[in-house]
User: Fold this.
Amino acid sequence: MAVLSKNEQEFFLDLFIRNGRVLDFSRKDFDKFARGSVGSSIMIDGQSMGKSLEKYVDSESAENVTELMFDLFDYYETHYLKKIRIEKRKNYMNDAKKSLGKEGIIQTIY
Assistant:
């Protein structure tokens, strides 16, 4: 299996981490996900999910890091992006309802 370079690892960290969070995971779900991916917890007490992931990437083998990054990217593609698209559609429809009203939306569709 090919391994990710440090630059590629940084790219994925930037993609997955926002404000200390990793995608849309709760701490419990992220811990469970990581255990399923690499066989052990990567969470560090007192640290955010993002910091825990960064420390894992800095301290683990390139093979383990690559495995986790690929699993996270698979989750990103199959779950996270889908959720974001659904939320954007809901926001668009809510905005349309506010500006057009129910009748205006029906006229716009037809």
